[in-house]
Every structure is written in C-alpha cells, then in structure tokens.
Amino acid sequence: MSSKDPSLSKSLGPSHIWALGVGIVLVGQFMGWNFTIAKGGSLGSIIACWITGILYLSLVMINTEMGSVVPEAGGQYSMAKYFLGPLAAFNVGLMLVLQYIMLEAADALVVGQLLKTLSPDINPTPFVILSLLLFTYLNYHGMQATLNLNIVI
C-alpha cells in the first residue's frame, strides 16, 4: 500500500469502546434516574422507561426497514440524505456534534453533584468549571485520551 492511498487508522480498541459506553450510561444513570425518581416517583420513572423503550424499539425497526433500501453505507447520514436531502444529513451531523458537547457538559455537572453529595458545604461550581476545562483539553487531544481517562476512572 503506497503512502498516497487513503486509509483509516485503528486508534480505539475494545476497552475504549467499553469505556465510552460505561461513561454514557453512568452519566445517564446519575442525571436521568435520580431526576425521574425525585420528580415523578418510582411509578412515574417505570412508566417513562417503558415509553422510552417502546420509542427506541420503534427507532430500531424504522432504521432496519430504511437501511435495507438505502443504496449506500453511512448510517443515519445516508438515510437522511437519501430520504430528506443533503440539508437533513448536515443537520444529523450537527445534532451529533451538539450531543457530544452536551455529554461533556453533563459529565462536568455530574462531577460537581457527586462532590456535593460528599459534603453539602462544598461549592461545586469551581469543580464543574475545572472538569469542563479538563474534558475540553482531553477532547482536544483526541478521543483516545478521553477514553483512557474513562478507563482509569
């Protein structure tokens, strides 16, 4: 293979993908479950889980049907481009970028709230800001650096 051939380099291993999933689930557990149980009670939380589960199942079924007729690879981008046009594909990509930004902010908020549970006298704001700066610095250096930190944590 010559140096001019385009190729993708494998930079993430199975442990990195595991760390990504665990990080997302832990933030979702802390921010989601605690909020729903506090606001809606156990029964309200269970009802919300069932509704969300039905919506995710519907999404999987729709993606399966759409994926079988799209003539190119590319997942949600290709589906949006093929069925709705290039602007929709751009918006799908934009929403994913915003999702990753919000995940970083949610991680920083979780750090502050966890410190607040250790001692009510702690002001979480400086820790939230420092965490956000740390996560931004790590993301600037690549997803592998961020996921390595997730593995350590």
Written account of the structure:
The protein is globular. Helix 2 (76-84) packs across helix 3 and helix 3 (86-118) packs across helix 4. The protein has helices at residues 14-67, 76-84, 86-118, 125-140, 143-152. The chain has 153 residues and is an all-alpha fold.
Strand content: under 5%
Mean pLDDT across all residues, rounded?
A: 82
Choose one word for the global shape: globular
The counted number of beta strands is 0
Share in helix: over 70%
Cα-to-Cα separation, first versus last residue: 39 Å
Structural class: mainly alpha
Rg estimate, integer Å:
19 Å
Q: What characterizes the major β-sheet?
A: none
Q: What is the H-and-E element order?
A: HHHHH
- Unreliable stretches (pLDDT < 50, length at least 5) are none
Number of helices: 5
What brief labels describe this structure?
0% strand, 153 residues
Question: Helices, strands, pairings?
Answer:
Elements: H1 14-67, H2 76-84, H3 86-118, H4 125-140, H5 143-152
Briefly characterize the structure:
With 153 residues, the chain is mainly alpha-helical. Helix content is 80%, strand content 0%.
